[in-house]
Amino acid sequence: MKSNESFKNRLLDLQGNLLSFAYQLTSNREAAEDLLQDTTLKALDNEGKYVDNINFKGWIFTIMRNIFINNYRQNVRQATVIDQTEDLYHLNISQDSGLSTPEGSYAVKEISATLNSFSDEYRIPFNMYVAGYKYHEIAQKLGLPLGTVKSRIFFARKRLRMELADYSM
Protein backbone atom coordinates (compact mmCIF):
# COMPACT_ATOMS: atom_id res chain seq x y z
CA MET A 1 0.00 0.00 0.00
CA LYS A 2 2.91 2.32 0.78
CA SER A 3 4.34 2.03 -2.76
CA ASN A 4 0.89 2.80 -4.22
CA GLU A 5 0.73 6.09 -2.29
CA SER A 6 4.34 6.86 -3.22
CA PHE A 7 3.53 6.32 -6.92
CA LYS A 8 0.53 8.65 -6.76
CA ASN A 9 2.48 11.31 -4.84
CA ARG A 10 5.33 11.22 -7.35
CA LEU A 11 2.78 11.50 -10.16
CA LEU A 12 1.07 14.47 -8.49
CA ASP A 13 4.45 16.18 -7.93
CA LEU A 14 5.13 16.04 -11.70
CA GLN A 15 1.79 17.55 -12.80
CA GLY A 16 3.24 21.05 -13.30
CA ASN A 17 6.20 19.77 -15.32
CA LEU A 18 3.93 17.51 -17.35
CA LEU A 19 1.57 20.38 -18.12
CA SER A 20 4.50 22.50 -19.34
CA PHE A 21 5.72 19.65 -21.55
CA ALA A 22 2.19 19.05 -22.88
CA TYR A 23 1.91 22.74 -23.74
CA GLN A 24 5.23 22.57 -25.62
CA LEU A 25 3.89 19.64 -27.63
CA THR A 26 0.44 21.04 -28.39
CA SER A 27 0.86 24.85 -28.22
CA ASN A 28 -2.73 24.94 -26.98
CA ARG A 29 -3.77 25.22 -23.34
CA GLU A 30 -6.92 23.10 -23.65
CA ALA A 31 -5.18 20.36 -25.65
CA ALA A 32 -2.31 20.39 -23.15
CA GLU A 33 -4.71 19.86 -20.26
CA ASP A 34 -6.39 16.98 -22.14
CA LEU A 35 -2.99 15.43 -22.83
CA LEU A 36 -2.04 15.78 -19.16
CA GLN A 37 -5.26 14.06 -18.11
CA ASP A 38 -4.76 11.22 -20.63
CA THR A 39 -1.18 10.77 -19.44
CA THR A 40 -2.16 10.70 -15.78
CA LEU A 41 -4.88 8.13 -16.42
CA LYS A 42 -2.58 5.95 -18.50
CA ALA A 43 0.13 6.10 -15.83
CA LEU A 44 -2.35 5.12 -13.13
CA ASP A 45 -3.71 2.27 -15.28
CA ASN A 46 -0.16 1.00 -15.86
CA GLU A 47 1.15 1.48 -12.34
CA GLY A 48 1.77 -2.25 -12.06
CA LYS A 49 4.10 -2.16 -15.07
CA TYR A 50 6.38 0.45 -13.52
CA VAL A 51 9.63 -1.03 -12.23
CA ASP A 52 10.85 0.87 -9.16
CA ASN A 53 14.47 1.21 -10.27
CA ILE A 54 13.56 3.00 -13.55
CA ASN A 55 13.59 6.80 -13.89
CA PHE A 56 10.01 7.70 -12.94
CA LYS A 57 10.03 11.13 -14.55
CA GLY A 58 11.40 9.75 -17.82
CA TRP A 59 8.80 6.97 -17.78
CA ILE A 60 5.91 9.42 -17.34
CA PHE A 61 7.23 11.84 -19.98
CA THR A 62 7.63 8.96 -22.42
CA ILE A 63 4.00 8.00 -21.85
CA MET A 64 2.95 11.58 -22.60
CA ARG A 65 5.07 11.81 -25.73
CA ASN A 66 3.71 8.49 -27.02
CA ILE A 67 0.10 9.53 -26.37
CA PHE A 68 0.75 12.80 -28.23
CA ILE A 69 2.30 10.99 -31.21
CA ASN A 70 -0.51 8.43 -31.36
CA ASN A 71 -3.17 11.16 -31.21
CA TYR A 72 -1.37 13.13 -33.92
CA ARG A 73 -1.19 10.10 -36.20
CA GLN A 74 -4.85 9.35 -35.59
CA ASN A 75 -5.81 12.95 -36.46
CA VAL A 76 -3.75 12.82 -39.65
CA ARG A 77 -5.43 9.55 -40.68
CA GLN A 78 -8.87 11.04 -40.03
CA ALA A 79 -8.01 14.16 -42.02
CA THR A 80 -6.81 12.19 -45.05
CA VAL A 81 -8.96 12.84 -48.09
CA ILE A 82 -9.31 10.13 -50.69
CA ASP A 83 -9.02 11.73 -54.09
CA GLN A 84 -11.65 10.34 -56.44
CA THR A 85 -10.74 12.53 -59.40
CA GLU A 86 -9.24 10.94 -62.47
CA ASP A 87 -5.96 12.87 -62.46
CA LEU A 88 -5.20 12.50 -58.71
CA TYR A 89 -3.76 16.02 -58.44
CA HIS A 90 -6.20 17.13 -55.75
CA LEU A 91 -4.29 15.29 -53.02
CA ASN A 92 -2.19 17.34 -50.64
CA ILE A 93 -3.99 20.57 -51.52
CA SER A 94 -5.55 22.69 -48.81
CA GLN A 95 -9.32 22.70 -48.67
CA ASP A 96 -9.45 26.41 -49.45
CA SER A 97 -7.39 26.00 -52.61
CA GLY A 98 -10.12 27.37 -54.85
CA LEU A 99 -10.77 24.09 -56.65
CA SER A 100 -14.49 24.57 -56.20
CA THR A 101 -14.41 27.67 -58.40
CA PRO A 102 -14.36 27.47 -62.21
CA GLU A 103 -11.00 29.25 -62.22
CA GLY A 104 -9.58 26.71 -59.78
CA SER A 105 -10.78 23.79 -61.87
CA TYR A 106 -9.31 25.39 -64.97
CA ALA A 107 -5.97 25.85 -63.19
CA VAL A 108 -5.85 22.17 -62.24
CA LYS A 109 -6.58 21.20 -65.86
CA GLU A 110 -3.81 23.52 -67.07
CA ILE A 111 -1.33 22.05 -64.61
CA SER A 112 -2.38 18.50 -65.51
CA ALA A 113 -2.03 19.16 -69.23
CA THR A 114 1.40 20.73 -68.73
CA LEU A 115 2.57 17.83 -66.55
CA ASN A 116 1.28 15.30 -69.07
CA SER A 117 3.42 16.96 -71.75
CA PHE A 118 6.59 16.12 -69.78
CA SER A 119 8.56 13.03 -70.70
CA ASP A 120 8.21 10.05 -68.36
CA GLU A 121 11.69 10.58 -66.93
CA TYR A 122 10.51 13.90 -65.40
CA ARG A 123 6.77 13.38 -65.04
CA ILE A 124 6.88 10.10 -63.08
CA PRO A 125 9.32 11.23 -60.33
CA PHE A 126 7.51 14.58 -60.04
CA ASN A 127 4.08 12.93 -59.72
CA MET A 128 5.44 10.52 -57.12
CA TYR A 129 6.90 13.44 -55.16
CA VAL A 130 3.59 15.33 -55.29
CA ALA A 131 1.83 12.15 -54.16
CA GLY A 132 3.92 12.20 -50.99
CA TYR A 133 6.82 9.85 -51.72
CA LYS A 134 10.19 10.85 -50.26
CA TYR A 135 13.18 11.28 -52.56
CA HIS A 136 14.82 8.05 -51.38
CA GLU A 137 11.58 6.11 -51.92
CA ILE A 138 11.28 7.39 -55.46
CA ALA A 139 14.91 6.54 -56.17
CA GLN A 140 14.40 3.04 -54.82
CA LYS A 141 11.16 2.39 -56.74
CA LEU A 142 12.55 3.73 -60.02
CA GLY A 143 16.02 2.26 -59.56
CA LEU A 144 17.71 5.65 -59.96
CA PRO A 145 20.43 7.42 -57.98
CA LEU A 146 19.09 9.85 -55.36
CA GLY A 147 20.75 12.85 -57.02
CA THR A 148 19.10 12.02 -60.36
CA VAL A 149 15.68 11.92 -58.72
CA LYS A 150 16.25 15.25 -56.97
CA SER A 151 17.44 16.96 -60.13
CA ARG A 152 14.55 15.60 -62.23
CA ILE A 153 12.03 16.87 -59.71
CA PHE A 154 13.83 20.22 -59.56
CA PHE A 155 13.82 20.57 -63.36
CA ALA A 156 10.18 19.45 -63.61
CA ARG A 157 9.23 22.09 -61.06
CA LYS A 158 11.28 24.73 -62.87
CA ARG A 159 9.74 23.84 -66.23
CA LEU A 160 6.24 23.84 -64.74
CA ARG A 161 6.81 27.34 -63.33
CA MET A 162 8.21 28.53 -66.66
CA GLU A 163 5.38 27.12 -68.76
CA LEU A 164 2.70 28.43 -66.42
CA ALA A 165 4.39 31.81 -65.81
CA ASP A 166 1.88 33.69 -67.96
CA TYR A 167 -1.01 32.00 -66.24
CA SER A 168 -2.69 34.17 -63.60
CA MET A 169 -5.79 33.44 -61.58
Description:
- There is one protein chain.
- The protein is an all-alpha fold and 169 residues long.
- The chain folds into 2 domains: 2-79, RNA polymerase sigma factor, region 2, helix turn helix motif (Rna Polymerase Sigma Factor, Chain: A), CATH 1.10.1740; 102-163, Winged helix-like DNA-binding domain superfamily/Winged helix DNA-binding domain (Arc Repressor Mutant, subunit A), CATH 1.10.10.10.
- It is built from 8 helices and no strands.
- The chain has helices at 2-13, 15-26, 29-45, 56-79, 102-116, 120-130, 135-142, 146-163.
- The longest helix has 24 residues, at 56-79.
- It is elongated and about 70 Å long.
- The termini are far apart.
Spatial shape: elongated
Note the main sheet: none
Strand segment count: 0
Structural domain tally: 2
CATH class of the largest domain: Mainly Alpha
Total helices: the number is 8
Annotated CATH topology of the largest domain: Rna Polymerase Sigma Factor, Chain: A
Give the % helix.
55-70%
As a whole number of angstroms, the C-alpha radius of gyration is: 25 Å
Give the CA-CA distance, first to last residue: 70 Å
Approximate strand percentage = under 5%
Please tell me the overall pLDDT: 80
Q: Mind telling me the CATH superfamily name of the largest domain?
A: RNA polymerase sigma factor, region 2, helix turn helix motif
Which regions are unreliable across 5 or more consecutive residues at pLDDT < 50? 94-99
CATH architecture type of the largest domain: Orthogonal Bundle
